[in-house]
Amino acid sequence: MKCYSCDGYIMKPIKLAHGLPALQCNKCGGTHIDLLSYRVWRDTGSSADSMVIVSEAIPTDNKKALVCQRCSKIMLKYKITTEYENYIDLCTTCDDAWLDGGEWQLLGALALQDKLAHIMTEPWQNRLKKEIAEENFTNKYQALFDETDFAKINEISDWLREHENRDELFNYLRIKSQN
Known about the structure:
The protein is of the alpha+beta class. The chain contains seven helices and six strands; from the N terminus they run βββααβββααααα.
């Protein structure tokens, strides 16, 4: 099978971990995983014994849309975490995943090698979107205020959130700020 990222390069069979076969490109280090084989590896308990970072690698991510090498359909991208700009590419037709060079090691460093299937679920992706939205919200207001004011705003916010009469406090503040 040809590499998903490198034109014309043929991938070679490897073992990502004990009992987990895959195909890997010698040029970019990208890895093709058949998710059926992956699920067998994960569900038989082999993953608990073999989740090891084989080598240190700086994870890369191919930003372009990839085409499945089996069925020629465009693969979907699933963000791994909010801390890294890496995505797992998935062909929903063939149930194949593509990890760019170093992403398997990244999953190992994050203790997510046995969570690959979870990463590609709607709840996982929705949680990441929510975290990103919250971070963007915080960053927006943090940029508007100096450090002291921002800390005071958060202190007041925490106090309001926990107060038993918070609705009345919000109404009072809203009315008071209009006068």
